Amino acid sequence: MPPATADATRERIIDAAEECFARLGVAKTTVEHIAIAAGLSRATVYRSITGGRDELILAVLLRNLRRYLDGLAERLRRQRSVPEAIVAGTMDAVEFVRAEPTIGRFLAPEAAGHMQAAVAGAVEQVLALCCDYVRPYFERAQRAGMLRADIEVEGTVEFLFRVITSLIVMDRDRGDEDTRRFLRTYVVPVIVGP
Question: pLDDT means per 10 residues in the chain (194 residues)?
């Protein structure tokens, strides 16, 4: 059997980290747990993942985010109405984060300190990834005159990212239809215009 490549070893470690985070929780998972789950030495884990646990937390988060964004990009391509795409995409993102056990664990209070450390320096990376996925949709809509001409894609994605985060963190016990109405009334006009 040929030796594992660096990329394959890294993926194996990320898989093990995701499994450990799910089983033990983010706060209680150590690099030792991850090494055992991956069937590797701690030294190999540290050589492959130089940022340690924080880098692994972010790697798991970004991998899951990429998987989600693959599906979101496809759904956006099928949407005919920009306002409804904004509402549906926002609702979908909130539901995804609430239902995705791995991301949900990162947002749990017991992991908050660890999440802050891992993600604090990577917010730009997360926003850039989101922009890469939705940029084609927003650019087409803007060229077709369906978005305000004076807004930037990056700023729009950051705005939606902040709205999604607030809907997750500040659950006002609103039903889905009330949340959709809120988005149509307050969020959509900011992006689409009056």
Answer: 72 94 86 95 92 84 86 80 90 83 54 54 74 86 89 87 84 86 95 86
Per DSSP, the chain holds a count of helices (H) and strands (E) of 11, 0
**Which residue in the block uniquely carries the two structure tokens 């920009």?**
82
85 closest CA partner among 143, 150, 138, 149:
138
Cβ proximity of 45 and 20 under 8 Å: no
pTM of structure: 0.72
Query: What is the full DSSP assignment across 144-164?
Result: TT-S-TT--HHHHHHHHHHHH
Q: What is the DSSP letter of 174?
A: -
Instruction: Specify whether the CB–CB gap between 89 and 3 falls below 8 A.
Output: no
